[in-house]
Amino acid sequence: MMNRKELDPDASRTAEFGVCLRAARMDHGWTQEGLAERIGYSGVHVSAVETDRKPPTLLLARRIDLAFGTPGRFERMWRRSRRGVLFEGFEEYLRSEAEAVALRLFEINIIPGLLQIPAYVCAYQGALVRRGASTRQQADERTAVLLRRQKCLAEKDPAPLLHAVMDEGCLRRSIGDREVMIEQLLHLEALAAQPRVILQVSPFSLGENRPFAHPMTLLTMPNRAMVGYSETQKRGFLEREPDTLAEWANEYDQLQVEALPRAASVEFIRDVRRGIEHG
Known about the structure:
elongated, 12 helices, alpha/beta, Endonuclease, Chain A
C-alpha cells in the first residue's frame, strides 16, 4: 500500500486528485471507510483513488465535493485530468455525435474509430503505451469511451446515416497481428452491407487531388445544422462556423466523387483481406 509521501502529485493529474482527496479527508478527520459511507462508495475504492490505482469519475468527484462542502473543486480537478485523455473540444463533439442524424467521416492512417473492432482498438492503444506516448490508464479510458460511442451508435433508433471514406493507407497499415487485421477487414465488409452505412476507399492513386490533410468528421444535427471536428497528432478542433463547414462539406462531396464507388470499395477491402490471408 502506498502512503502519502510515496504518491507524487506531479506524476499525473489523477495522482494530484488522489493526494488532494487524502489531504481533505484527513483534514476532516475521516477514515477511508468514513468518507466512503458519505459518498456511496467502498473504502477499497476510496483507497484506490487516493493511491492512483483507480481513476476518479465525474460522479465520484461531485459526491466528494458534496461531502466536503467544496463546490466544484474536485469536479474541476477531474476535468483537468480528462484533458490528458481526450483532446480539447472532443467531449463537446461527443455530445453532438450522440444526437446526429448523419455522420460523414474521413480517416487517413487507421480505421475510423467507430468502425474498429475491440482487438484492433486494444492493439492500437497498447502500442501507444509501449512507446510511452500514453499511460495504461489513459489508453484504457480512451478505449472505454470509444466502445461506449460504438454502443450508442448501434442502439440508436432510427440509426443515423454513416458515410466513411478511408484512405487506402487505413487498410494497408497493419494494426495488431494478422488475425486482428483479417477480423477487422471482415467487420468492414459486414458493415458495408448495412443499409445505413456507406464505405468508400480513397486510393493512393488520387495523389495530390485528395482533399483533406487531416482526419475529419462532419455531423448533421436534427435541425440540419452541421458540426465539424478534426484532429492533428496533438490537438483537436471543434468547428461550428458555417462558412468553414460549408467548405468542408464541398470538399467532402468532391472526395466522395473521386473515391472508389461503393461496390468497388467493398471489393477493394475484400482484396486487401485476401492478400493478408494468403500472404
